[in-house]
Amino acid sequence: MIISAAREHSGRIAVIDADGSEINYADMSANVLSLAGKLRDLGVGPDRMVAVMLPRSAYSVAAVAAILAAGGTYCPLDGSAPRRRTAGLLAALAPTVVLTDGGIPAGLPRGAAVLDPAGGILSASQEGTVAPPPGEPRRDHLAYVIHTSGSTGHPKGVAMTHRGLNRLLRWQVASGPAELRTLQFTATGFDVTFQEVLSTLATGGTLVIPTDEQRRNPARLLDVVRERGIQRLFLPYVALQQLAVVAQTTGEFPETLEHVVTAGERLIVTDAIAELFAKLPGCRLDNHYGPTEAHLVTAGTLPADRAAWPQLPSIGRPVDGVGCRVLDSGLEPVPDGKTGELYVSGAGLARGYLGDPALTAARFLPDPFGQPGARMYRTGDLVRTGDDGEYEFVGRADRQLKVRGFRVEPAEVEAAILGHPRITGAAVGLREVARGVPALVAYVTAEGPLAHQALVGFLHERLPVYLIPARTLVLPTLPVGANGKVDAKALAAVELPASFEHAVDTEVTADLVAEIWARVLGHDDFEPDDDFFDVGGDSLLASWVVAELGQALGRPVDLSLFLEDSTVDDLVAALARTVPQAPGERPASQIVTLRAGPSTRALYLLHPLGGELVGYRELVKATRSPLRALGVGWAGEPPAPGTALPDIAAVHFAQLRTIQPHGPYLLAGWSFGGVLAYELARQLAAAGEEVEFLGLLDANPVLDPLTALPLGETRHAGVLAAALDRLADGADLAALSRDGSWTSLMGAPVPEGAPAEHLRRSLGIAHTCMRAAMDYRPAAYAGPLDLFQAADAPHGKQAELAGVLRRLCTGRFTATTVPGDHWGITREHAGATAAAIDSALERAGEQNGHH
Question: Which Gene Ontology MF annotations are present (predicted)?
């Protein structure tokens, strides 16, 4: 194709070298044919390797064409690579000829000739004779071998045939405009070079070669594009983004550009890229996808209407001669819209990996959907088919991260970060930042200083909490490999500041707490010193806030912080005092401080149905007792279904003894918490410990603790079980509020937007506890018991309960009526209830000699 183009365009400029010198097609053709003849004289022919160690120049361009014209196999090597690596690659290739302008390379294999395209033969074959070329090349002979990084640490040589290369060039020539002036940006060791170089020369275009410094410097590169009148660019996403940022900053746009092709990385339409193409209304943007093993697989052209461009464009449809299938792990097709791994078949497949049949067999599989003997390549890329039939790139199966149990696709996070108006480049990775705690770190380049909290606030409007990086590191530039892609290994080696271990405490939390509050409360009408519970918060919403804070900060956050510090400012200070702990299994029973006091003695408040303690907040605020108030909550996963109430109490018994090994103990509990306190008191007494005070707040160990119905009533337990089933089936959470089931159990409606997993945990704990209470058969208790009954209880039930408990309790028994209903005695009437408890505690203390 190139020789034909040379005859047709002999007077046109084929190449403009980095020094400005120009070579027309006639001279280029002569140079190619001359070099091809020399190569054949040295034994180059089908499947005989020619290692090329030349810098990008007119010589390197002629070398590609000459090797193919001679029927040989083009094998580009990086002349600046370490000598040991180069020697290893040369040994594996066993080239017939090495083309270089740098002298005889170290590790030159026996039998290889060394040729300088400008100066002639530097070293003849050490074999003494040259084997004649083995005939003309055929479609299944090798056109090139390109090395890519391997998972074993050793480069793997992808061996592409003439069939695959010809298929690519025919498609590229047919799909793009001819005679374009194209920048030769791509490094010679990457497969996009063939599209860039050969399609330009095959259509009578002109290749413009920049210097290495111009290629590396986005500002200089933009100058070259504008000054040389470049019409077409092949750029990886990172380079395109850098070029767009420079154009946006300087206001100088390359008006001659007609066609941009991006490949090699996921394309993200950032503000800078959108503005670049808005200023170039006649410029076409193509998004190409394809691994080296299949070269170009899919292609898509973004629509002429720039406003219709999505932030993450599709990778298009398969190009001519390529077959694509999206399969699951069992090699079965997945439905459209579902994610699977992409497998590629057709004429574009490489022969395999040079000298590695095992790896070839592992990646190039028999095609069960094709003709006998057909193969397909496993890309390792996750995609899904969109409604328009185009493929949407999801990410690398082996790049997907897992953070705190959530799957994280870095490209999704990077795309959101790049939406920030001051950020010009972004990459994310998982790093250990505090005591073995892995966290998502954002590496960014930005225009001026950028505080982490500013990025967090920005991302909260675009990403779920678990996708928001816990740390941000601003770099002068992102490290980029020779292929123009972000170098993930180099990022992982960047030293993190020592302050990162506690960066979350000094930077993240103020804005983060306010953002989460606003989302959970459904409004932002609060000040940093407003109490959460005074601006619409309740116990369920508080536990939701704590859950989201834990996800955002990458470490557990105890609800006890929220109980003691319930303003934004207080929470920030409390989080700053808390040392991040390494992840691990949290104990099921957790004892936390609800209220500090001058006394060394403590009143233990047992959790109600959901396992949480925020419901005691108003009560402990209202008490005047000098005692400390400690909450005994259920912090772990829900107890196993069918767990008996004595077994639940035994878990708390063990935890309580670690805090206070011996009595006398002061216990109380509201609702189910009172039933639990009763059984815990029995177990402590059985162990020989003294229980000085046992307070039951509208709790009923012998009747249904919520409805005061006889034991055996299953309605509420059934409601809980049904709610759990509906959550598992993906039901709308708000439906639990609409039918009243959640409200009747928890005393408040389901908050809109509450995370299903959090509600499922609360429901699971409540369901097990409810069943345990209904199956509980309390035994007699010999210690003191104070019963605090709601005045608004069902008629006649108060006296009935008090009579039953008098018979069970052989110690001192006191019944006190407090204002309000079952819920109100710890909420709007918490002051009266607290006063009654204070009096009872004081009497118990006096009787036991505590003042």
Answer: phosphopantetheine binding
Q: What number of residues does the chain have?
A: 851
pLDDT the model gives residue 213: 86
CA 268 to chain centre: 16
For range 315-330, the mean pLDDT: 94
**pLDDT interval class at 529 (50, 70, 90):** confident
Residue 279 lies in a domain: no
What is the identity of the amino acid at 77?
Answer: L
User: CA angle, 828 as apex, 827 and 829 as ends, to 5°?
Assistant: 90
Residue 373: how many CB atoms within 10 A of its CB? Answer: 7
Domain closes at, from 500, 522, 543: 500
CA angle 239, 240, 246 (to 5 degrees): 90
Determine the 3-state secondary structure of 657 from DSSP: helix
Three-state SS string across 503-570, please? HHHHHHHHHHHHHHHHHHHCCCCCCCCCCHHHCCCCHHHHHHHHHHHHHHHCCCCCHHHHHHCCCHHH
The span from the CA of 658 to the CA of 272, in Å, is: 59
β-strand pairing of 232-235 with 206-208: unpaired
Q: What's the one-letter identity of residue 18? A: A
Nearest to 476 by CA among 441, 431, 433, 443: 443
224 in any annotated domain: no
Residue 840 CB partners (closer than 8 Å, separation 6+): 693, 695, 786, 788, 814, 816
* Residues 575 and 561 sit within 8 Å (Cβ to Cβ): yes
660 shares its domain with 787: yes
CATH number for position 837: 3.40.50.1820
Q: Please report the beta strands in 635-699, taking only residues with DSSP state E, as ranges in sequence order.
A: 665-670, 691-697
Strand order in the sheet with 97-100: 120-123, 113-116, 97-100, 49-53, 73-76, 142-148, 156-161, 352-353
Asked if 325 and 300 count as a contact pair (C-beta separation under 8 A), the reply is no
Confidence band, pLDDT 50/70/90 cuts, at residue 585? very low
* Amino acid present at 192: V
pLDDT of the residue at 391: 97
pTM of the predicted model, to two decimals? 0.55
Q: What is the rounded distance in angstroms from the CA atom of residue 752 to the CA atom of residue 377? A: 46
Number of domains observed in the structure of the chain: 5
Q: How far apart are CA 540 and CA 774, in angstroms?
A: 24
pLDDT score recorded for residue 226:
96
CA distance 195 to 13: 19
Asked if 125 and 1 sit in the same domain, the reply is yes
CA distances (Å), origin 814, targets 106, 388, 491, 549, 666 = 97, 74, 68, 43, 16
> String of b and e for 469-487 (b: at least 16 CB within 10 Å)?
bbbbbbeeebebeebbbbe
The H or E element containing residue 474 is strand 471-474
Bridge-based pairing of strands 259-262 and 232-235 is parallel
Taking the alpha carbons of 454, 458, 463, 464 in that order, is the dihedral positive or negative?
Answer: positive
- Domain CATH for 29: 3.40.50.980
Closest CA to 143 of 250, 49, 252, 282: 49
The pLDDT of residue 156? 86
Pair 381, 407 in one domain = no
**pLDDT given for residue 430 in this prediction:** 84
Query: Residue 378 belongs to what domain range?
Result: 323-394
* Cα–Cα distance for residue pair 60/212, rounded to 1 Å: 14
Classify 599 as helix, strand or coil.
coil
| Residues 465 and 591 occupy one common structural domain | no
Are the beta carbons of 299 and 175 closer than 8 angstroms? yes
CA dist 604 and 666 (Å) reads 6
Q: Indicate whether 276 belongs to any domain.
A: no
Give the DSSP letter of residue 617. H
Which SS3 state, helix, strand or coil, does residue 396 take? strand
- 692 lies in the same domain as 785: yes
Q: Is the dihedral of CA 553, 554, 555, 558 positive or negative?
A: positive
